TrEMBL record:
This is Threonine--tRNA ligase. InterPro entries: aa-tRNA-synt_IIb (IPR002314), aa-tRNA-synth_II (IPR006195), aa-tRNA-synth_II/BPL/LPL (IPR045864), Anticodon-bd (IPR004154), Anticodon-bd_dom_sf (IPR036621), Thr-tRNA-ligase_IIa (IPR002320), ThrRS_core (IPR033728). It catalyses: tRNA(Thr) + L-threonine + ATP = L-threonyl-tRNA(Thr) + AMP + diphosphate + H(+). It is an enzyme of class 6 (ligase). Belongs to the class-II aminoacyl-tRNA synthetase family. SUPFAM superfamilies: Class II aaRS ABD-related, Class II aaRS and biotin synthetases. PANTHER family: THREONINE--TRNA LIGASE 1 (PTHR11451:SF56), THREONINE-TRNA LIGASE (PTHR11451). One of its GO terms (molecular function) is threonine-tRNA ligase activity. Pfam families: HGTP_anticodon, tRNA-synt_2b. Residues 41-310 form the Aminoacyl-transfer RNA synthetases class-II family profile domain. Its EC number is 6.1.1.3.
Amino acid sequence: MRSSALDNEETHVYDHRKLGRELGLFDTDPLIGSGLPYWLPDGAIVRHSLEEYIRTAERAAGYQHVYSPVLGKRELYEISGHWAHYNDDMYPPMDIGGEQMVLRPSLCPHHAVMYRSRSHSYRELPLRMAEIGAMYRSELSGVLGGLTRVRAIQLNDAHIFCTLDQVADEVAAALALIGSAYRAMGITGARYRLSLPGAGKKYAQAPDMWQRATEILRRVLDRSGTPYDAVEGEAAFYGPKIDIQVTDHAGRESTLSTVQVDFHQPERFDLHYIGPDGAEHRPIMVHRSIIGSVERAVAHLVEHHGGAFPAWLAPVQAVVLPVSGAQQPDADQLLGRCQGAGLRARVDHSEAGSLGARVRENRLVPYQLIVGEAEALSGEVAVRLRDGRRLPARSSDDVIARIRALLEAHDTRLWID
Ligand SMILES: [Zn+2]
């Protein structure tokens, strides 16, 4: 359904497609193809900041990052079960030198093969393998739009190979990572969903496996006190999952983050680890994504914040505004100090218009640093926050240090005194 009738300014809902174009974040071109957005410089900054946040949080949580190719042999997906259960969403194979190659519909099979490439002792578990990698979905052109329905997806993915005893703690830790990320991004999930299999051939047939995996997820959710709805027919083909749902500007719900317990793929890929008894044992795979696809996460952030991103995600974090041409040298000097401190900053000089006009022009920038005659003389700066608060002039060193501390903490508050 096209939603142009719903893009109603009066309801103060933001359509990320419209805003993304206006703010110069991303766009599409019919020559590249629908469902294949490209990222403009300001959008690339938002995406890069998000990816960097995720990688840092994952490293701190004991994940190791890998890279794997976006293509794989058809046989890889026959083994994983994607070919049998997920074929409708996959691109047709390409014949290359007599071999059938497929654009990958998920990262799991690559990670399973990478795990299998080395022998593992129980002492290495849980082994947490993470990658922000591309995957492809053969969406029909009728349902494509902006960043939410795309044909090429950058997924914040990870697979945790662990023992049965470790699964519950790993699921709980993944939910905690998701909680921290949502706080940093200034968003909340609309609801938690326990996604169970439904009827039909879409799901791998192994009743015992489904039951055990579902029990683990239920127990973790119950213990955490998180309210959730159990919904049949929404599981992955290989296992049940916890989905964190968000809603878009038109009220449509979609999954952002997910945690899944999988007994199926370790079996299919014949994965094992050497236990304390010296024998081979089968690990369990926990699939988890903190922010889901980078595309959908950014779409949601754009709509939720109306382009006024938390400062650590903002394409421009500080703008220096000299009151008149006389303060231009001081403004340039302050810009250099902001940039030297790692802030994404620029100057909007007085030729660009009156101070009031420049303040309005930069209304989405979290920090406006105003340099007038008095400030230039005293080496101070007057700060105007995006929410309209004006702070008395203070030393620019102090201002920069406070902004930096908030950015490094991924704090959504604009100022703390
Ligand atoms: Zn996976």
